[in-house]
Amino acid sequence: MKILTNTSSTSYGGIARRAIEMFSDSKSRQNIEIVVLAIGREKRDFPDNSIIKYNIELPESIPKNVCGNLNSYDELCNRFEPVVRTVEDIINIEKPDVAFIEGTYYAPWCFYRAAKRVRMPIVLLYAGILREEIANWSKTQKEPLMKMERDFYSLNTHYIFPSNLTKRKVETEVFKASLPQSSVIPNGISPEFFINKLVEEGEGKGEGIGWIGRSSYVKRLDYILQLNNELRKSCKSYKIHIVTDTQPKLRAELENAGIEVISPMESSKLREFYQRREVIISPSHFETYGNVPMEAIAAGTPALVSLNMGVAERFIELGLEDYITDFDNIPATVEKIEHVRLMHFPREFKERLKNYLWSAIFDRYYTTCQQAIG
Q: HSE-up of 25 (CA within 13 Å, CB side)?
């Protein structure tokens, strides 16, 4: 089975991680071939440059902020039409059996439009709900993009949702229709996060609170400053360490508040980051899933999540209800941090976590792809 899929505009984050893992996993499967394309302002720089076969750079006519300055949905379509035609050409060259599309922003939207034009089987993995990502934009800015997200609706498309939370939200708020050809498959965990003793005792293990995420509204980076203030008021000595791509002005504000800001890093370094923390927090407004908390507990570090995250379903399944909190109640969150930071996961618990290794998740993805082809 030949699968054409896409990766994100950066080499880090959930979509990029999935594409990297799929490509690597396919090398051990005789009947799976993965072809990866990337769409963005510049060519993607991945550690393994062989992952991307097609790098589609945006035309110079498209502004730097990509979806900015749009007056209508028609203008959006015209802006990205050259990209759609390029993807259509790639499909005609590669002749894949199925399009496995990740995400619902402009790049997967171009991929989706091209795949529909050539009438090929499509599996759409809902990674991020666009209306949640742009919830703080003005109505004028949001309208064309919300219509773009509704374009992903089709009774012929097979959908994969990383959580029931995401499926319900998409059906009731985005498409306003049920999706009979859909399944819920959680995101996977890379085996490297299970490696023990990367950080030895006495080398910084158990230092403060960690947070990882993009500098975007939905990830709630501003919450870190609020939590930091509460910790100071409560005379708590925890230092906060974050990994993000934030702009220089906000980075300076965070650092001036005593927060360590680290640039995005590869997963082997992330494992070390997790293992050096006492607890990882994920206070996002909304997450279709949330890879960070699962990676953290695989690395042996407790993580706090909210019910606004799809990964909370996995926490409940794993008996980690105590690790779910209401981040809006900051004093209660500080108490929860105090409670979970000293917890340790027994060996048998980590063995249960291995049911979510990427290889097992890909088996389920490929079953869905075969259903779409059939």
A: 21
Q: Please name which of 65, 55, 1 lies closest in space to residue 32, comparing C-alpha atoms.
A: 1
Q: Are residues 49 and 164 in the same domain?
A: yes
Cβ–Cβ < 8 Å for 92, 118: yes
Rounded to whole angstroms, how far apart are CA atoms 314 and 306? Answer: 12
Residue carrying structure tokens 């992330």: 270
Q: How far apart are CA 277 and CA 239, in angstroms?
A: 10
Q: Are residues 184 and 294 located together in one domain of the fold?
A: no
Output the CA–CA distances (angstroms, integers) from residue 64 to 61, 83, 146, 263, in the order listed: 9, 15, 20, 22
| 327 vs 305: CA distance, rounded Å | 8
Number of structural domains (the chain) is 2
Q: Which residues contact 268 (CB under 8 A, 6 or more apart)?
A: 192
pLDDT in tens, 314-347: 999 999 999 999 999 999 999 999 989 878 887 7
Is 19:132 a contact under the CB 8 Å cutoff?
no
> What is the span of the domain harbouring residue 168?
2-188+357-373
Query: Is residue 308 located within the same domain as residue 217?
Result: yes
Same domain, 155 and 213: no
SS3 label, residue 126 = coil
CA–CA separation, 82 and 95 (whole Å): 20
Give the β-pairing of 122-125 and 260-262: unpaired
Residue pLDDT, tens place only, 177-210: 999 999 999 999 999 898 775 555 444 457 899 9
What is the residue-wise DSSP string for 45-76?
A: --SSGGGEEEEEEPPTTS-TTSS-S---HHHH
Residue 355, token pair as written in the block: 């049911």
Q: Are 299 and 205 in contact (CB under 8 A)?
A: no
pTM for the model stands at 0.90
114 and 171 part of one domain: yes
**DSSP H stretches of helix in the chain:** 14-26, 73-94, 106-117, 130-133, 139-150, 164-169, 222-233, 248-256, 267-275, 291-298, 312-317, 330-340, 347-353, 358-373
